[in-house]
TrEMBL record:
<feature type="binding site">
    <location>
        <position position="119"/>
    </location>
    <ligand>
        <name>a divalent metal cation 1</name>
    </ligand>
</feature>
<dbReference type="InterPro" id="IPR001559">
    <property type="entry name" value="Phosphotriesterase"/>
</dbReference>
<keyword id="KW-0479">Metal-binding</keyword>
<feature type="binding site">
    <location>
        <position position="152"/>
    </location>
    <ligand>
        <name>a divalent metal cation 2</name>
    </ligand>
</feature>
<dbReference type="InterPro" id="IPR032466">
    <property type="entry name" value="Metal_Hydrolase"/>
</dbReference>
<feature type="binding site">
    <location>
        <position position="12"/>
    </location>
    <ligand>
        <name>a divalent metal cation 1</name>
    </ligand>
</feature>
<protein>
    <recommendedName>
        <fullName>Phosphotriesterase-related protein</fullName>
    </recommendedName>
</protein>
<feature type="binding site">
    <location>
        <position position="14"/>
    </location>
    <ligand>
        <name>a divalent metal cation 1</name>
    </ligand>
</feature>
<dbReference type="GO" id="GO:0008270">
    <property type="term" value="F:zinc ion binding"/>
</dbReference>
<keyword id="KW-0378">Hydrolase</keyword>
<dbReference type="GO" id="GO:0016787">
    <property type="term" value="F:hydrolase activity"/>
</dbReference>
<comment type="similarity">
    <text>Belongs to the metallo-dependent hydrolases superfamily. Phosphotriesterase family.</text>
</comment>
<feature type="binding site">
    <location>
        <position position="237"/>
    </location>
    <ligand>
        <name>a divalent metal cation 1</name>
    </ligand>
</feature>
<feature type="binding site">
    <location>
        <position position="119"/>
    </location>
    <ligand>
        <name>a divalent metal cation 2</name>
    </ligand>
</feature>
<dbReference type="Pfam" id="PF02126">
    <property type="entry name" value="PTE"/>
</dbReference>
<feature type="binding site">
    <location>
        <position position="180"/>
    </location>
    <ligand>
        <name>a divalent metal cation 2</name>
    </ligand>
</feature>
Length: 289
């Protein structure tokens, strides 16, 4: 397996996350440094060489920790900038103008503190005023820096609206990833989003409480057959302590250890897997050096 995915990038992960302020659930404080490092070392042996961490302001972003994990694991960890969605936007930031928010993003990107704008999101079936300001700011920051934009959709709702808004405002489609599209369970919705030219994330792999992986496999087979697979990226989106192997969960290595073998067994071509894990991330983020 390591030879098949050598050079792979996981495109939507969190190495350190804290949503417990809002969720009032200690499980949503992902602060298990040693356990996370052990799993990252497993990922490196599997062939994963880069991870996009989409944790941003208000989500528990910790630049120093990410740098340490990168050094200790041998996996390049890319940082993100921005704010998440309501109600996780910290006090003080929701009153800022799009221009003020964009200035922060631009500063972090130009200083090398971050390379991606994300994850910025919308609520379930609802796009709040605060969230609209974040998207306006993301457009400004992208135009100033060229940085990719990675979005959060709540159960894939408003995915098409996100794609149409960003592309309509001049964000380069190939620099956009609309997140959590595997949760759509609706191939027509997925096709419509892909027709805008953007990329999509099948990035909640292993979260069977949302969707069994077997359904993700079948959707990817359909996208491969229709020639749409080159705009799909993969990830796990680990967000809870209980999702780590040390606490009984599937952990970051699940994708390579279990999901990819399921794809191969179902008949997905090895080159398709390399496309989703290597070539498409390289196209969006730039090739690894």
């Amino acid at each position: 397996m390591a030879s098949l995915i050598q050079g792979a990038t996981l495109m939507h992960e969190h190495m350190h996350l804290d949503l417990s302020r809002i969720k009032k659930d200690p499980d949503t404080c992902l602060d298990c440094t040693q356990e996370t490092l052990e799993e990252l070392r497993k990922l490196r042996k599997q062939g994963v060489t880069r991870i996009l961490d989409v944790t941003n302001t208000g989500m528990g972003r910790d630049h120093d920790l990410l740098d340490w994990l990168e050094q200790e694991s041998g996996i390049r960890i890319l940082h993100s900038t921005g704010w998440y969605k309501d109600p996780f936007i910290p006090d003080g930031w929701s009153e800022k103008s799009p221009e003020e928010l964009a200035d922060v993003m631009i500063r972090e990107i130009r200083s090398g503190k971050a390379v991606v704008i994300g994850e910025i999101g919308t609520s379930k079936n609802r796009w709040t005023d605060n969230e609209r300001r974040l998207f306006e700011a993301a457009v400004l920051a992208h135009k100033a820096t060229g940085a990719p934009v990675y979005t959060h959709t709540t159960m894939s709702t408003l995915a098409l609206e996100q794609a149409q808004y960003l592309t309509g405002q001049g964000v380069e489609p190939d620099k956009i990833v609309i997140g959590h599209m595997d949760l759509a369970q609706d191939m027509d919705r997925i096709r419509k989003v892909l027709k805008t030219g953007v990329n999509i994330g099948f990035d909640t792999i292993g979260k069977s409480d949302y969707l069994p992986d077997e359904k993700r496999v079948q959707m990817l087979l359909e996208l491969e057959a229709e020639g749409l697979i080159d705009h799909v990226v993969l990830s796990m989106d680990i967000t809870r302590k209980s999702q780590l192997q040390a606490f009984g969960g599937k952990g970051y290595p699940w994708l390579a250890d279990h999901f990819i073998p399921s794809l191969l067994e179902a008949g997905l071509q090895p080159d398709t897997i390399r496309q989703m894990l290597i070539r498409t991330p390289d196209r969006i983020l730039g090739e690894q050096t």
